[in-house]
Amino acid sequence: MIRTVKLFFLDRQLREKLLLVIFIAAITVVWLVSFSGRARTFWQDAQSVRATLATQASWLSKSDSIDARSKAAISKLDPVKTYDNNRLFGEINRLANQDFRNKVQVSTEPSKKSGQFSINSVTATINAANTEADWQAVKKLYLALEKLSPYINLEEFQLAAAKTTLSLKVRATSIEVAH
């Protein structure tokens, strides 16, 4: 095969030989550029996988410590005081309606269950006037929710104020322990 290609090349005129060399060189350059792009992508993916594996190995090496801390935290929780989805909704609704009455919209999200635990989430949206009384009511709501920790945790507390309006979005979660 190589002998046939060699004979074919040697039988050509000088300008044809030159064009063949240029053509083969151009194909080689295009192939090398394409190969280097694929090699770079492969290298970056390999680095990303190495970093992910290192992170996972780090977390796995700490699993005993994490398990011990989570068991200690669970032992401090009273399963009777944990909030299921309905109870969490009722508590957030009650606290928000104390000062904001008909300015509150409360919605629940589906519970996420894992073993003996359920994670319940409720979002309350409050649109009120930008007055000193409503600012005090926001502070009162925050402090009331803070007192319910660790049974109710604030995931999000977004406050936006304009000249005349005050918008508050509260996302609270609770971990329900099956008893």
Keywords:
elongated, alpha+beta, 58% helix, 4-stranded antiparallel sheet, 2 domains, 5 helices, 179 residues, Alpha-Beta Plaits, 4 strands
Protein architecture, described:
With 179 residues, the protein is of the alpha+beta class. It folds into two domains: 2-57; 79-177, 2-Layer Sandwich (Alpha-Beta Plaits), CATH 3.30.70.60. 58% of the residues lie in helices and 26% in strands. The chain contains five helices and four strands, in the order H-H-H-H-E-E-H-E-E. The protein has a four-stranded antiparallel beta sheet, with helices on one face. A hairpin with a 3-residue loop joins strand 3 and strand 4 (165-177). Helix 4 (85-100) packs antiparallel against helix 5. The mean pLDDT is 89.
Structure at a glance:
58% of the residues lie in helices and 26% in strands. Strands 1-2-4-3 form a four-stranded antiparallel β-sheet, covered by helices on one side.
